[in-house]
Amino acid sequence: MQKYSIAPQRGFFPQPSYLIGTFKEDGIPNFSLITWITFCSVNPPMLMFASRGRKLTRELVDKNGMFSANLVTTEMMYMADYFGNTSGYERDKCEDISVKYIKGKVLDIPVLEESPWIYECKLIETINKGDGCIYIAEVKNILVDETIKDISYGKVDLISIDPLIYAPGQYYKLSSSIGSVGYSKRTM
């Protein structure tokens, strides 16, 4: 298969979508769409997300030292798109589109009632790089929808959870599982 070179960029990188939740000083929740998110430690469990530019979410995570990371499903696409394209400086985004939220079970953060999988996170470190910032946080609690029964490694059924997948400029959905880790060893 022939290859060609392109300039370094962020143009193609499919990833799950999360809404990062924080409270404003007046107690109003603020959520921002973040797709640059992944785990960076198992023990203790830590995740990191990156954000660039001037954003209220960045300011609130820095100030409050905690946030929620709410997995976005395809049914939440309108909400995620609205939150990702509307400034929290100027709007009460949850009120604008009637989004329901509650407080976290462990941390004083807003969590989305509609999200099936939510990480409650305490900020550990921030790293400024280029025009962005990396936030590293310890997972203090995970809220899981009661319909998700088997949460053991490799057993969560992503097709039924239906996560929203983002690749720059487009949203996608998963359609099938095509194998499991260790598949190549079992077919030898």
Structure, briefly:
With 188 residues, the protein is of the alpha+beta class. It has helices at residues 56-64, 77-85, 93-96, 158-161, 183-186, and strands at 15-16, 18-23, 29-34, 37-41, 46-52, 66-71, 101-103, 110-112, 117-129, 132-144, 164-167, 170-173.
Give a written overview of the molecule:
The chain has 188 residues and is α+β, with helices and mostly antiparallel strands. The chain has a single domain (15-186), classed as Electron Transport, Fmn-binding Protein, Chain A (Pnp Oxidase, Chain A, Roll), CATH 2.30.110. The protein contains five helices and twelve strands. The strands form three sheets. A seven-stranded antiparallel sheet has the order 3-2-6-9-10-5-4. The mean pLDDT is 92. This is Flavin reductase family protein. It comes from Tissierella carlieri. Residues 10-155 form the Flavin reductase like domain.
Give me the Rg, rounded: 17 Å
In CATH's first tier, which class applies?
A: Mainly Beta
| Residue share in β-strands | 35-45%
Q: How many strand elements? A: 12
Main sheet characteristics? 7 strands, antiparallel
The DSSP helix count reads 5
Q: Specify the helix fraction band.
A: 10-25%
What does the average pLDDT come to? 92
Order of helices and strands: EEEEEHEHHEEEEHEEH
Tell me the domain tally.
Answer: 1
Within the CATH hierarchy, at the fold level, what is the topology? Answer: Pnp Oxidase, Chain A
Spans of 5+ residues with little confidence (pLDDT < 50)?
A: none
Structural class: alpha+beta
Shape: globular
Strand order across the largest sheet = 3-2-6-9-10-5-4
Distance between the termini: 26 Å
For CATH, the homologous superfamily is named as Electron Transport, Fmn-binding Protein, Chain A
In the CATH classification, which architecture applies? Roll
Protein name: Flavin reductase family protein
Cofactor: FMN
Family: Belongs to the flavoredoxin family.
Keywords: Flavoprotein
